[in-house]
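Recap from last week: sequence in, structure out.
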Amino acid sequence: MGKLSKSTILEVLFWVAVAGIFFGYTFKFNQPIEIYKFGATGWPRVILLLIMLVALGNLYYNFKNGSKAQQDRVGMGDDPDEVSYDTLDIHVKTGFILIIPFLYALSLKPVGFYCATPVFIALIMCAWGERRWKFILGNTVFIYALLLVLFMLVLNAPLPQGNVSPFYDVSAFLLKMKTQFDELF
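Predicted structure tokens:
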């Protein structure tokens, strides 16, 4: 069995079984959709395939290299650095990290996805301790653009637009631009 441990084999079997069971359930809602040629089961099956590939990739990696923790990678050592929760500052940071997604979810209805998402991305990076504003700005723009391409162009998914005036106007402008882009092709 190479360098495989029992826990690795059990983990791979678990994920393969989960993917297989849910793949079987996709046949219960396999309906055609006008605007999407792969039907209602297209994306769920892609995600299940990715789960299966990752599980099998993990099996292959552990077969070749074993499951011993690597010392060269951050957070992968056998004896992790001790984290102290003695100061109030650590509790505030932890609370901030936990509250940001909640506030983001609450802001989606009035502010909308298009305006709330870049603020959320930047705030979560700040909460994780990033302080380089060029890095935050660059990654926020990159991630936001990637999300817009994914949801607006690839998936053609409707996103919350918001209902408060300046935010709704930004959402309407982006949707108008998407419509004009669609008309080009």
